[in-house]
Every structure is written in C-alpha cells, then in structure tokens.
C-alpha cells in the first residue's frame, strides 16, 4: 500500500497528536528555546496534561500561563493538577482554539499536524502583538520564514516574514542547500527524541519514516545532494515495501539522473 493509505489506517488521535503529551524535558527545551521569562504570557494550544503550564510558571517565571484543550476530561484533569500545586497566574480553557482569544499572548506553543487547522491559525497568529513568538514542532508556519530554528523546534515572530517559496523555507529550516541521507536522519532523530514514546521500537520506525519524508521533500525541492537516489534511501524503500508492504517511491516527483 502507498504510505498515504498506511497512515490512514492509524488512529486519528495518534496522527493529530491528540493523545500525545510532550515529555517534561522536551517542554523545558521548548520554553528555553523561546526564551520564556518574567513578563511573558504563555499559551499552550492543545495543552493536554498542562505540565507546560506548570513548568512555565514554576521554572521560567512566566507572568501568566494559559492552557487550551477541547477535551473536557483533559482540561478538568489539568485544573486539578494545577490546583494541587497551589500555583497562581494560570488558566485552563476547554474550547476550540479557532475561537480562542489569544490577544495577550507573548509566547505560544502550537503543535498541530492538521494542515487545515494550521492554515486557519496563521492569520489569527499574524494579528497578535508585535514580538509574539509562535513555536511549532517539525514544520514551520506555512508561507513564512522562521526567525529561529533548533530543529525540531521552530520559532516565528510577529510580524511574520513571508517566504519567497517552499524551497527557501525548507532551506531556512534545515540551514543548508544540500540535504543528504545522513542529514535527513539526524533531523528525523531529533524529532523522534523530542516526541519519544514509551516504545523505543516505535521511535525507530518513526525515525525511518521521517528520514525518508525529509529526504523526499528535499529531492522534490531540488535541495537533495546529488542526482541519484542514495543507497540507504533505496534500501529503506525496499525494507518498507518487503516487510511492511509500504511503498513511498511514488512520492518522488522527478526521476533520478
């Protein structure tokens, strides 16, 4: 089956990140990457267990921290956890982020994989106050050049800088105009470590898939190194097809020389 068909068989909650909570150490990395500090108003869109809210207040001294999640059970659990910590300056909202008032935000963590949702949120973010930092994981905000990158963490600052094209955006994210297999694997592994699951085997499989996605995108954008498919990429194409029944070669938009 094609990779798109395989992904469609997975639970939507996994693909959307709905049932994935980032590790506390990952949250600390993200908040440090954003230079969160006193005076900042931090928002986590899709806050889940709200550990990000706790860490933002306790360890980074944020003036205020707001978690938003459309799952009432998660929101209720988050409120109970924060109440038990006897923290001040927090708020948990159960609502759709498209309807949320984010006007006082200075730092926003936004980790959504639904492309339609991401596209709808970009205009909303662009109307926020100058200097507001929007943090994404893995992918930048569509159509915009990042202001800071420590892959997989990406920061866009209001007012956003429009990207001349997808190729320029990709180069800004990866910091190179030539992506080989080793580079693709390095970046994919960073992502896997940031969102690591309890099952290391799953992380390995995720790294392989993400490596191939990065390399294929680079190939299609003309920023892959060389004019031939590297042996490791061909090998993983074969492994996925032979042992998992997953085909990815059709994603190549141009044929090798």
Polypeptide structure, described:
The protein has 257 residues and is α/β, with parallel strands linked by helices. The chain has two domains: 12-165, Rossmann fold (3-Layer(aba) Sandwich); 176-251, no CATH class. The strands form two sheets. A seven-stranded mixed sheet has the order 3-2-1-4-5-8-7, with helices on both faces. It contains ten helices and nine strands. The chain has helices at residues 3-8, 12-16, 24-33, 51-58, 72-84, 115-126, 166-174, 181-194, 200-221, 231-244; strands spanning 41-45, 64-68, 90-93, 107-110, 133-137, 144-145, 148-150, 153-157, 161-162.
**Termini Cα gap:** 26 Å
Count of alpha/pi helices: 10
Number of DSSP E strands? 9
Structural class: alpha/beta
- The overall number of domains is 2
What's the CATH H-level homologous superfamily of the largest domain? Vaccinia Virus protein VP39
Shape: globular
List the helices and strands and how they pair.
Layout: H1 3-8, H2 12-16, H3 24-33, E1 41-45, H4 51-58, E2 64-68, H5 72-84, E3 90-93, E4 107-110, H6 115-126, E5 133-137, E6 144-145, E7 148-150, E8 153-157, E9 161-162, H7 166-174, H8 181-194, H9 200-221, H10 231-244
Parallel strand pairs: 1-2, 1-4, 2-3, 4-5
Antiparallel strand pairs: 5-8, 6-9, 7-8
Helix pairs in contact: 3-4, 8-9
């Amino acid at each position: 089956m094609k990779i798109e068909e395989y992904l469609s068989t997975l639970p939507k909650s996994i693909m959307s990140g709905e049932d994935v909570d980032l590790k506390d150490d990952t949250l600390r990395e993200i908040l440090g990457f954003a230079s969160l500090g006193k005076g900042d108003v931090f928002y986590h869109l899709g806050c889940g267990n709200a550990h990000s809210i706790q860490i933002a207040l306790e360890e980074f001294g944020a003036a205020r921290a707001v978690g938003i999640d459309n799952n009432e059970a998660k929101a209720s659990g988050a409120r109970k956890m924060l109440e038990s910590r006897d923290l001040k300056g927090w708020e948990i909202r159960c609502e759709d982020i498209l309807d949320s008032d984010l006007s006082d935000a200075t730092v926003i963590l936004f980790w959504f994989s639904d492309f339609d949702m991401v596209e709808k949120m970009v205009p909303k973010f662009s109307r926020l106050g100058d200097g507001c930092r929007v943090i994404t994981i893995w992918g930048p905000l569509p159509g915009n050049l990042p202001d800071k990158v420590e892959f997989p963490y990406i920061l866009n600052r209001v007012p956003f800088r429009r990207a001349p094209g997808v190729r320029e955006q990709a180069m800004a994210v990866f910091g190179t105009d030539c992506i080989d297999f080793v580079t693709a694997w390095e970046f994919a592994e960073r992502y896997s470590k940031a969102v690591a699951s309890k099952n290391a085997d799953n992380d390995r499989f995720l790294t392989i898939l993400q490596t191939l996605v990065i390399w294929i995108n680079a190939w299609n954008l003309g920023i892959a190194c060389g004019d031939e498919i590297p042996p490791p990429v061909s090998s993983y194409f074969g492994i996925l097809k032979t042992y998992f029944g997953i085909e990815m070669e059709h994603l190549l938009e141009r044929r090798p020389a």
